[in-house]
Amino acid sequence: MRPAELWETVEGAREPDTVRCRLCHHRCRIAPARRGLCGVRENRDGSLVTLVYGRLVARNADPIEKKPLFHVAPGSMSYSIATAGCNFRCGHCQNYQISQAVTELGMLPGRFVPARAVVEDAVAAGCRSVAYTYTEPTVFFEYARDCMTLAHEAGLLNVFVTNGYMSPECLDALEGLLDAANVDLKAMTDGFYRSVCGARLQPVLDTIAELVRRGVWVEVTTLLIPGRNDSDDELREAARFLRGLSPDIPWHVTGFFPTYRLTDAPPTPAATLIRAWEIGLEEGLRFVYTGNRPGHGGEDTVCPSCGAVVLGRLGYAVTARNLDPEGRCRRCGAAVPGLEMGERP
After folding, report:
1. pLDDT band at 344; cut points 50, 70, 90
2. pLDDT in tens, 118-168
3. Residue 309 has pLDDT above 80, yes or no
4. At what angle do helices 115-124 and 141-153 cross, to 10 degrees?
5. Rounded to 5 degrees, what angle do the CA atoms 217, 223, 226 make?
6. N or C: which end of the chain has fewer CB within 10 A?
7. Which strands, in side-by-side order, build the sheet including 29-30?
8. Which of 85-89, 168-172, 209-213, 292-296 has the lowest mean pLDDT?
9. What is the largest distance, in Å, between two alpha-carbon atoms of the chain?
């Protein structure tokens, strides 16, 4: 347990010592001895505390492509960490055993790992970055920020895999520390967010736009669930939104598999992924990728100038490189946007 940040006392509240958390867009009002929606921030006698500081439930060296981040040091490894807890209640969460462990099972799993040990392990494992992932990194903000500070001191990149529900105050506190983020854009309807995730759409759109404005490298993932969020109109709306921010935002359209509480929808057909890939390109996005179906196409990075394959991929593996050390296409010399695109791991 550590003191939390980004909260305030609610003046004039019916119950004395009630606080408001300002970490994410839920902005939970939390009475004494109660917790926020994430389950890991608790009001202790009028002060907010975090219950998961350093309490890791996962720490692994993963390919950066697994996040997925295809335009951040391609082919490198990313040291990936998570605590329990999440501020969403997604019915199709693939990591529900840890994301919902606190709120549903009443468990607080994990083992304390100092922030410095995370960075030391990342360096020892030959990783190029530290990824805050598996569960929602916003809910372990204080610990993530300490790790991020040390990671930058060690020359490592920091990447978030996030639902995009962090508050502007949270983004302010991460200014200069967050290098890249993959944001889940789960659907383009508020109804989906409310019924499936327990959240709202607009704050996610606002966060994506704000990250781009702040100069964070952004990639976006949409998990396509048959009959729920995969209509042509909705896919075009998502692509147009991203294109309006920047045509260089990579959009990952990935396949759904029945899990957790959402088991009444079938797996996503490969044809749906290809259709979404085509729609993204038709709407002007330069980099659209299909996920969860290796070998079906849509995995390669193609030069937006001449059409040459500059990064070939199969699953999480980079199988071909045609970029110079500065990240330019070896055929035509055009720069391919991203972070450390030309450096070899």
Report:
1. confident
2. 999 999 999 999 999 999 999 999 999 999 999 999 999 999 999 999 999
3. yes
4. 50
5. 155
6. N
7. 7-9, 19-21, 29-30
8. 292-296
9. 68
The DSSP result for 1-62, as a single string, is -EE--SEEE-TT-SSTT-EEE-SBTT--EE-TT-B-TTSSEEEETTEEEES-TTEEEEEEEE
Per the listing, tokens 């309490």 go with 55
Bond into 137 cis (ω within 30): no
DSSP secondary structure, 226-253, as one string: TTTT--HHHHHHHHHHHHHH-TT--EEE
Q: Summarize the confidence of residues 249-262 as an average pLDDT.
A: 95
- In degrees, rounded to 5, the angle at the alpha carbon of residue 72 between the alpha carbons of residues 151 and 65 is 105
Instruction: Give CA–CA dist 36/43, Å, rounded.
Output: 9
Global confidence as pTM: 0.97
Is the CB of residue 7 less than 8 Å from the CB of residue 48? Answer: yes
Q: Does pLDDT of 297 surpass 90?
A: no
Look-up: residue for tokens 């502007």? 168
The mean per-residue pLDDT over the stretch 250-267 comes to 95
Angle, vertex CA 212, rays to CA 209 and CA 213, nearest 5: 85
Are 215 and 337 in contact by the 8 Å Cβ rule? The answer is no
Query: Residue 209 contacts by C-beta under 8 Å, 6 or more apart in sequence?
Result: 245
pLDDT band at 23 (very low <50, low <70, confident <90, very high): very high
The answer to whether 113 and 56 are in contact (CB under 8 A) is: yes
Q: Which helix (H) or strand (E) holds 146?
A: helix 141-153
Distance CA 252, CA 291 (A): 7
